[in-house]
């Protein structure tokens, strides 16, 4: 006959220290082990698990060269610099502000795209910072025209035109001698003036100089009473009547 004896063997249950407010750092993870536990700092932190310090990833980051890094608790953030675009700051592309139409250049300036920015340059005939351009070619501000020319202002430019009766490029103007073209009547005389001319009928003619008609002097009886008057082109002739002699102005 077999006899069995039973012994009271102690039974042990592991304590999960991770559930009992263990001493791991708040930025560490607790790993329960049989009869103990392990603390390990989370990603972005360094230490022994009981004490964890934030790692400044910006000291050794892979952000794009045209971005800036911002350290955050346990991590970091890359942001593209102003003038660049990108989703995460790891890949940043230059923004062409001149093509985007978002710039504030003056309409009288030229936009030039630069890395991460742009430049506004006032067009010829204007001055300013490119965002504000003032017309410096205004005829009232600066006038390179000849004294016998007229200045006409346009946007950023001005034009010199010689006045009537003059010839030249506007910067240099010369009087035109209109009399060389014989503008007056054949029975008139031309007098050239500065920028113009005057036509005057010759003696014995009347009119405006451009059209001259013969004056019939005989109508005013210029001859002697005993003389006969004959009108000629531009003049007249007095001749004493038969039986008289003299100049026609005096007949005896």
From TrEMBL:
Family matches, as InterPro entries: EGF, EGF-like_Ca-bd_dom, EGF-type_Asp/Asn_hydroxyl_site, EGF_Ca-bd_CS, Growth_fac_rcpt_cys_sf, NELL2-like_EGF, Nephronectin_domain, NOTCH1_EGF-like
Stored SUPFAM superfamilies: Growth factor receptor domain
Source organism superkingdom: Eukaryota
Any GO molecular function: calcium ion binding
Signal peptide start-end: none
Keywords attached to this entry: Disulfide bond, EGF-like domain, Repeat, Signal
The protein, known as: Latent-transforming growth factor beta-binding 4-like isoform X1
Organism: Paramuricea clavata
Lineage, highest ranks first: Eukaryota, Metazoa, Cnidaria, Anthozoa, Octocorallia
